[in-house]
Amino acid sequence: MAEGVLLDVVPSIIQKLGSEAFKEIGKFWDLKKEFEKLEKTMDALVAVILDAEAKRIHNHKIKHWLERLEDAVDDVDNLVDEFQTEALGRQVMTGNEITKKVRVFFSSSNQIAFRVKMSRKLEKIKETLKDIKEDSSVSSSIPLPQETYTEYVNRETHSFVRDEQVIGRDDDKMNIIELLLSFDSQDNNNVSVLPLVGIGGLGKTTLAQLVFNDEMVVKHFELRMWVCISNEFDLKTILEKILKSQGPSLDDLQSSLRKKLNGKKYLLVLDDVWNEDREKWLKLKTLLMDGSQGSTILITTRSEVVAPSDTDCLSVLLARFR
């Protein structure tokens, strides 16, 4: 990328990401929030680039930093173009608008393959931009943007999903349900743990919702609970969410929870778990072990580290989740 071109390319990327057409693309691929964060990152870089361009002639470190940034921005530009090309190739674009009516007719297998490929590229770009932002060799010379990647601390999910709006996940759903129903006959602990591991945007939550509401699952479990954990793994907060109550002490919560679970075969979904602290997990798990044989804790997470090492079954690491 030629010198000074950054100031042309970055605004162009911002314009593409902020367009209504691209917002519809983000909704379809379940990457709307990721694209919004990427747009904010590009926007924050404009002022930095202006300052850095003025100093690059006299500072070799800044020159090298800008070269790295140019490569990363080029990757972002290519990523955006690939999404637009894919949309055009599927004939879902009419002028600058997305034609919603035909979206459901996409090939599900091609959809998943494309989403996996592009999610990996997006994660790599995010890591590269984060490394560039945190480069201490230039931080004293140019004002680098702060808090570019704030994660979803307050993200909330629920258990409801419309089956007709989800395509291509029947096999995955049935594989998980078969595992859930098989725990009754296995000679292991009363409560099993089944993690669903995969990077963001691949539909882990949607898959958990499908499983949670399946008729066989509803009949099999006496008690079903849905709790969104996100990246704040606080024991008292989690127990409060599980019991759907506010205010009692941690001791009251743990006592009430154990009484509620005692002798019942339950399914508990812990969605979007970020905690990688094993001790925190063990403290929570201890309070969840009073269920009867076949009880299951279903976890969705982006990190294989989050999946507890003492689980009684293999994590669901389907090819499309990796």
A few lines on this structure:
This protein has eleven helices and six strands. It is of the alpha/beta class and 322 residues long.
Structural descriptors:
322 residues, 50% helix, elongated, single chain, alpha/beta, four-stranded parallel sheet
CATH topology tier name of the largest domain: Rossmann fold
**What is the strand tally?**
6
Task: Give the ordered list of helices and strands.
Answer: HHHHEEHHEHHEHHEHE
**The named CATH superfamily of the largest domain:** P-loop containing nucleotide triphosphate hydrolases
What is the average of the pLDDT values? Answer: 75
CATH class of the largest domain: Alpha Beta
Low-confidence spans: 91-109, 147-153, 317-322
- The proportion of residues forming helix, as a percent range, comes to 40-55%
Task: Give me the side-by-side strand order of the main sheet.
Answer: 3-6-5-4
Tally of structural domains: 2
Strand pairing plus helix content: what structural class? alpha/beta
* H/I helix tally: 11
Q: In whole angstroms, how far apart are the ends?
A: 32 Å
Shape: elongated
The profile of the biggest β sheet is: 4 strands, parallel
